[in-house]
Design goal:
single chain, 179 residues, globular
Length: 179
């Protein structure tokens, strides 16, 4: 149920709300809006993700995804086609979208830790089931599917969510099990 609500909210944000974009604004992302503490590559981000799982470090997992400011000031307004003006979303819906994404990500991170935490994991493969999508202020790489091998040789696939790339820096937008 929660997944359907989040999916509906994100769909509304990405595809139904374009009329809320205000004319007259340049689509250039303000230079001051950058991803904080982001990884320098997808591989580095995924390595940090796997290490956080092995250490059962929930806080480290959450540092790998966008924070509220990044989501509300970069992702939401930048989720338009390149060249279009930034999306303008009122405070209340913006807070709602963040709270839904954040709660889902927290729940999924706990599930990741329950299923994979404490294991020595080796990344065997990574794929993106939705490919690369270019938005005005960022590139989305998703949905990420990791093939992992644990210390006993068991191989499992883990869907993690979508990654945002801004200025050559990478963070998860949120965690989502897409298995």
């Amino acid at each position: 149920m929660q997944t359907r609500i989040l999916t509906a909210a994100m769909t509304a944000l990405m595809f139904v709300v374009p009329g809320m974009a205000s004319a007259g604004h340049a689509s250039t992302r303000p230079a001051t809006l950058r991803l904080q503490h982001a990884a320098p590559s997808v591989d580095a981000l995924l390595d940090q993700f796997v290490k956080a799982l092995a250490r059962r470090d929930e806080q480290a997992l959450h540092r790998l995804r966008v924070n509220e400011q990044e989501y509300r000031r970069i992702i939401i307004p930048g989720t338009v086609k390149p060249g279009e003006p930034p999306r303008q979303v009122a405070e209340e819906p913006s807070q709602f979208f963040w709270s839904m994404l954040n709660q889902k990500s927290e729940d999924v991170a706990r599930t990741f830790l329950e299923q994979y935490g404490g294991h020595t994991l080796k990344r065997k493969n990574v794929s993106f089931t939705k490919g690369t999508r270019q938005f005005a202020w960022y590139t989305a790489l998703g949905d990420v599917r990791l093939t992992l091998e644990d210390e006993s040789g068991q191989v499992r696939e883990l869907g993690t969510g979508t990654i945002a790339e801004i200025d050559g820096r990478y963070k998860f937008i949120g965690f989502n099990t897409n298995n």
